[in-house]
Backbone:
């Protein structure tokens, strides 16, 4: 497939936003359970603002995936109508809910709103309720994003349970890495907790992403040129695709780069997304250096851009069987 | 239930592209507006087409065969492009099974084109909406056209009659009989999309002559051995030769 930068930025940016929110929420929940030191309201409000900015950045990138940006105003609202059948429609519902709830979470903490909702007699029940709802929305959004790709059964590189798992783990890994950097600067005793989880999630992401790379390198194709045109002969080759100037079919489904380029992108993303951040996180935790965490996040985010590019470029669409030779 | 479809006879198609050009002509002049062309007379002309004719070579030289392969939307009975559309712009008509795009609802997200294994959908680069074969829905129901010409433009234009059009759910229709009697098949059956359009395979027409047909084994004269000696003298028959 041809990787579209709008979707690359959309999926990586909202992944960071959702992951950062889940990190904040885990600190909040652990704090209420007195397993971690309680944080100031400003810590959560500021973190939610950063998560919100990433989510809005993703939304902004998504606008450029529409045919025309104006469709965002005039037509995109219809995109929520087919949630019964379409994962994309479900994502279009989950995303504004996620953005809205993150905003609400930020407002609740910024103004210090609270209420004794359940009669427990402890503080933080309202933020916890909003936090739980937002965490559910964040996870639902991860599932929707991953399933958009996993649900297309004949793009065999994507049609696998590893796809949504990777979206979840890579998003949360980058979010927790950013949370570590944020906690190092503004938090109180959260660096070890976030940092260790960032390492665990990055390692888990490495395992599942490597598993999908391994799986994709040995895919047995269901379609062949024989099934594509229905001629039962071992030797069938295309002589003409019916046009010489190219068409949507030749532009949208091919990445247009060499095998070497594809291979180098794979190694770049493996180093930038996993190896470097792991080393930097470990060094940061060992030396208690906040700057390394931020560096780890920057490398990991850039690595994720390469990872997402590769994710699209590697996918081989069966329609390509019809477009092998120009003429 | 009706399912309109095309049946394309690969044994008859000569790859002349008449269906491609007539399709483009009809649909670019239709009520849905023109189909985009970029650089039509320049170096790399490109544009939106609903129908293409491709060419494949089967076998190894010198035992090869050329197959011309017209390719358009197959109007799948279980169309994978329809449920993925987030806006409901992509839909399959209940009354005749035609898969259509509502150009006023489409947001151009391309998801349906990813979800079509045949590459039958094209984004119009000017209108920025997804377009595809409509089975000439604005023609086949047009009461102002003589009844025998209420067929898709590609079917009307095919000089060899390689394209048939009709209801594949009606067992007595021309297309159903052609599929049944001539080995009609579907493309990429492995994905369970159940394409409504069918293709008829290349067929070899061979004459089988048995030895019995060359020498009359059942010659009654020989069987009953009632032949008489023929005269060695010149007869009137010899002169006639």
Residues:
């Amino acid at each position: 497939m041809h990787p579209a930068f709008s979707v690359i930025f959309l999926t990586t940016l909202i992944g960071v936003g959702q992951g950062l929110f889940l990190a904040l929420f885990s600190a909040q929940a652990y704090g209420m359970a007195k397993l971690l030191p309680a944080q100031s309201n400003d810590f959560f409000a500021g973190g939610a603002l950063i998560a919100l900015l990433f989510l809005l950045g993703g939304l902004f990138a998504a606008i450029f995936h529409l045919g025309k940006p104006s469709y965002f105003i005039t037509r995109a609202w219809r995109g929520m109508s087919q949630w019964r059948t379409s994962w994309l429609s479900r994502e279009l519902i989950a995303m504004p809910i996620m953005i809205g709830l993150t905003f609400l979470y930020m407002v609740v903490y910024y103004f210090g709103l609270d209420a004794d909702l359940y009669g427990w007699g402890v503080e933080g029940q309202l933020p916890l309720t909003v936090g739980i709802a937002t965490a559910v929305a964040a996870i639902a959004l991860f599932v929707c994003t991953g399933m958009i790709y996993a649900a297309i059964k004949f793009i065999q590189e994507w049609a696998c349970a590893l796809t949504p798992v990777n979206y979840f783990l890579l998003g949360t890994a980058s979010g927790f890495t950013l949370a570590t950097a944020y906690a190092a600067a503004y938090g109180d005793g959260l660096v070890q907790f976030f940092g260790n989880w960032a390492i665990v999630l990055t390692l888990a992401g490495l395992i599942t992403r490597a598993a999908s790379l391994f799986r994709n390198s040995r895919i047995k194709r269901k379609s062949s040129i024989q099934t594509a045109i229905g001629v039962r002969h071992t030797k069938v080759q295309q002589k003409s695709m019916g046009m010489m100037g190219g068409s949507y079919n030749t532009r949208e489904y091919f990445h247009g780069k060499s095998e070497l380029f594809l291979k180098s992108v794979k190694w770049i993303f493996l180093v930038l997304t996993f190896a470097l951040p792991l080393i930097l996180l470990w060094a940061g935790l060992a030396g208690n250096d906040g700057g390394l965490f931020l560096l780890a996040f920057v490398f990991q985010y850039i690595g994720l851009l390469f990872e997402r590019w590769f994710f699209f470029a590697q996918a081989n669409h069966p329609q390509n069987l019809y477009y092998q030779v120009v003429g | 239930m009706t399912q309109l479809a095309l049946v394309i006879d690969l044994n008859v198609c000569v790859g002349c592209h008449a269906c491609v050009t007539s399709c483009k002509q009809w649909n670019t002049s239709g009520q849905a507006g023109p189909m985009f062309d970029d650089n039509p007379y320049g170096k790399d002309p490109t544009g939106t087409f609903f129908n293409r004719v491709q060419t494949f070579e089967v076998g190894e030289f010198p035992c090869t065969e050329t197959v011309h392969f017209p390719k358009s939307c197959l109007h799948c009975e279980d169309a994978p492009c329809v449920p993925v559309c987030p806006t409901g712009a992509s839909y399959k008509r209940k009354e005749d099974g035609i898969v259509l795009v509502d150009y006023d609802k489409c947001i151009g997200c391309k998801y349906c084109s990813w979800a079509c294994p045949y590459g039958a959908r094209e984004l119009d680069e000017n209108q920025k909406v997804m377009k595809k074969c409509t089975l000439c829905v604005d023609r086949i129901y047009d009461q102002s056209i003589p009844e025998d010409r209420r067929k898709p433009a590609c079917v009307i234009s095919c000089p060899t009659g390689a394209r048939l059009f009709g209801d594949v759910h009606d067992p007595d229709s021309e297309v159903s009989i052609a599929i049944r009697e001539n080995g009609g098949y579907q493309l990429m059956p492995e994905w369970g999309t159940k394409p409504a359009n069918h293709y008829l395979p290349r067929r070899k027409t061979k004459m089988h002559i048995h030895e019995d047909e060359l020498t009359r084994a059942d010659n009654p004269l020989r069987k009953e051995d009632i032949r008489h000696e023929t005269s060695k003298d010149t007869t009137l028959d010899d002169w006639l030769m």
User: Anything to note?
Assistant: The first helix of chain B runs from residue 18 to 28. Residues 4-200 of chain B form a domain with the Alpha-Beta Plaits fold (CATH 3.30.70.20). The CA atoms of residues 24 and 49 of chain B lie 6 Å apart.
